[in-house]
Amino acid sequence: MTTDPVPGAHVSPQWAAWRRSVDLDEYEARFVHDAAHGEADLVASLHPRSVLDAGCGTGRVAIELDRRGIEAVGVDLDGDLLALAARKAPQLRWECTDLASMDLGRTFDVVVLAGNVLLFCRDDRRSDVVARCAAHLGPGGLLVAGFSLRMAESSIRLDEYDAAATAAGLVMVERWATWERDVYVGGGYVVSLHRRAGHDASDPLA
Length: 206
Known about the structure:
Blueprint: H1 13-21, H2 24-34, H3 38-45, E1 50-54, H4 60-67, E2 71-76, H5 79-88, E3 93-96, E4 108-113, H6 126-135, E5 137-148, H7 158-167, E6 170-176, E7 189-196
Helix pairs in contact: 3-4, 6-7
């Protein structure tokens, strides 16, 4: 380990437990073997020019988007995970910062929160994370977030997430049960698409 395996004070107990026990090489190898890119497929279908992968971990989504010709920037609080990402894709911008207070000095067409990122944030900071993600959206920009509703610890309610999105100036566009856009009729996992309010209807992302 090159850094504290549980960085910062704004992570959930669930994340802290996972991070202390995980073997990063095995974790990374599992995703390489699975070669699953459902998140990247959905994001790419929105035709963005630029994407912020918020809570990017080892960079799986950002790297796949870059491979498809989309500008991608990855942000995570964990320096060890970012080191793995940078080793795989040194040409990309990787930022080690807290999602609850990040300020990258620019905006993006899409911000994606994949892999249960919100569940790994401390309960009382999730609304801050949503607000900072929204602040990094350009006109007509889209926030895509997927997370479980059935995790034993650090659970999140859908109405709480929607309230945080509304407070951040976002409006609901779509909601699915999977990254493959299966219809959401309730259940244990949800993928939500919100747009920055007040967008220009002529915007290519509209």
